[in-house]
Amino acid sequence: MFSSVPTIVCDECEFVVKELKTVVEDKKSQAEARDFLRENVCKSLGQYRGFCDLVVDEYLPQFIQELDAILADPHQVCVDIKACNAGQGFKARKYVGLLGWFQRNSL
Fold first, then answer.
1. pLDDT class for 42, splitting at 50, 70, 90?
2. What are residue 92's phi and psi, to 5 degrees?
3. A Pfam family this protein belongs to (predicted)?
4. Least enclosed by CB within 10 Å: which of 19, 35, 81, 97?
5. What are phi and psi of 24, to 5 degrees?
């Protein structure tokens, strides 16, 4: 992104990560995410709807738990996506899957 990230970008990133963590931890938001996936994804899969519902029920809680763990350190997340300078004691983590794609394709 930048060779040296402006402090305001880093501060805003950390603020957004903290807000996102609050949403991720909220049980109502988790239920809304589950319901959204079931109604907008699984429902459109016809005969595979039941299987899709099972996958959502089985893996969404694990995904939320992993996302919550990643968001535990807002500064580290912002370093990872290059919105903050690494600084002392911080080194960008390498992600795989969807998070890795976002990390590799940041602007």
1. very high
2. -60, 135
3. SapB_1
4. 97
5. -60, -35
